[in-house]
């Protein structure tokens, strides 16, 4: 049986599993949320069966944290001022890698995945089943939440055990991490669904999406110290959500002394929430307007 047929058959099994009946069952047909929830496990299994997806989205931030920690630790600790608290290189880059994980798990993963499913005919087959776009979105969003949470947990575990990074002990810091994570991963997932309409084929999806993600990571304070970037680049980065996710993560994990290195010498958590909420709305509207089971120009 082909991959397309297997995916479509899996969708029908998901619906029947929630329904409790067979093809001709008399049980009440499940609602869209129930069908979408049933698809989450299917989507997560498919995610971890793809070796390139696991490497370039799930493990990539962890690998980059290890590289940066090993490469720059000899330069000594990072200190925002002569009387400020100093931290290790790994501790400084950890928030950026957490933010990059949100971007990769949401935007890059879904943009490439959905574009590939549209190109190889999987979406066309799913469109011929009772599966609604809402249920399909719930399955994808659930997958991003599960894999994003596992990725963040792995990063934090490795940071505390392998790289010797001291994690926050204040409840307020973890509360900041929690809301930035939830708002950031939701925004990233919706933007990934919207961006999936851009590639014209599955083969070109990575070539279209990955460079965009790399540029955003370099200008948003993930791989480079944000305060060292020219002002015009900081302003450009402020137009996109990754800069705000990275800033929110730095507010959660870095000492307060490091706020002076931000664009306005403050964590600006209120603006972090506003910017991410605005991009969430943009992603929701754009994904609703652009999503099609089949490309119109196909």
TrEMBL record:
Instruction: State the coiled-coil residue ranges.
Output: none
Topological type in the membrane: Multi-pass membrane protein
Q: What is its main location?
A: membrane
Q: Does the keyword Oxidoreductase apply?
A: no
Membrane-spanning segments? 54-72, 92-115, 144-167, 173-195, 207-226, 269-291
InterPro entries the UniProt entry points to? ABC-2_transporter, ABC2_TM, ABC2_TM_bact-type, ABC_2_transport
According to its UniProt record, where is this protein located?
Answer: Membrane
Q: Which residues form the ABC transmembrane type-2 domain?
A: 52-297
Q: Which domain of life is it from?
A: Bacteria
Signal peptide range in chain numbering: none
Instruction: Extract the ranges annotated as region (Disordered).
Output: 1-33
Keywords of this entry = Antibiotic resistance, Membrane, Transmembrane, Transmembrane helix
Q: What is this protein called?
A: ABC transporter permease
């Amino acid at each position: 049986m082909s991959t397309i047929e297997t995916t479509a058959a899996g969708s029908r099994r998901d619906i029947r599993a929630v329904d409790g009946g067979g093809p001709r069952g008399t049980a009440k047909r499940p609602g869209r949320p129930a069908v979408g929830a049933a698809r989450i496990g299917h989507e997560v299994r498919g995610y971890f069966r793809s070796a390139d997806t696991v490497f370039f989205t799930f493990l990539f931030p962890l690998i980059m944290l290890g590289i940066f920690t090993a490469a720059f630790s000899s330069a000594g600790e990072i200190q925002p001022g002569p009387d400020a608290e100093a931290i290790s290189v790994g501790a400084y880059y950890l928030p950026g890698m957490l933010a990059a994980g949100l971007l990769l798990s949401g935007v890059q993963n879904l943009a490439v995945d959905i574009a590939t499913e549209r190109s190889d005919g999987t979406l066309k087959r799913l469109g011929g089943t009772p599966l609604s776009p809402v249920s399909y979105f719930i399955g994808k969003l659930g997958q991003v939440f599960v894999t994003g949470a596992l990725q963040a947990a792995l990063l934090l575990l490795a940071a505390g055990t392998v790289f010797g990074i001291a994690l926050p002990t204040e409840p307020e810091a973890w509360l900041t991490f929690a809301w930035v994570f939830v708002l950031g991963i939701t925004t990233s997932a919706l933007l990934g669904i919207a961006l999936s309409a851009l590639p014209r084929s599955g083969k070109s999806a990575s070539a279209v999406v990955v460079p965009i993600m790399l540029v955003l990571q370099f200008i948003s304070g993930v791989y480079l110290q944000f305060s060292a970037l020219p002002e015009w680049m900081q302003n450009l980065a402020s137009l996109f959500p990754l800069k705000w996710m990275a800033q929110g993560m730095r507010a959660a994990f870095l000492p307060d002394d490091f706020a002076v290195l931000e664009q306005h010498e403050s964590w600006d958590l209120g603006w972090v929430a506003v910017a991410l909420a605005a991009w969430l709305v943009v992603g929701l509207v754009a994904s609703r307007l652009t999503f099609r089971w089949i490309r119109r120009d196909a």
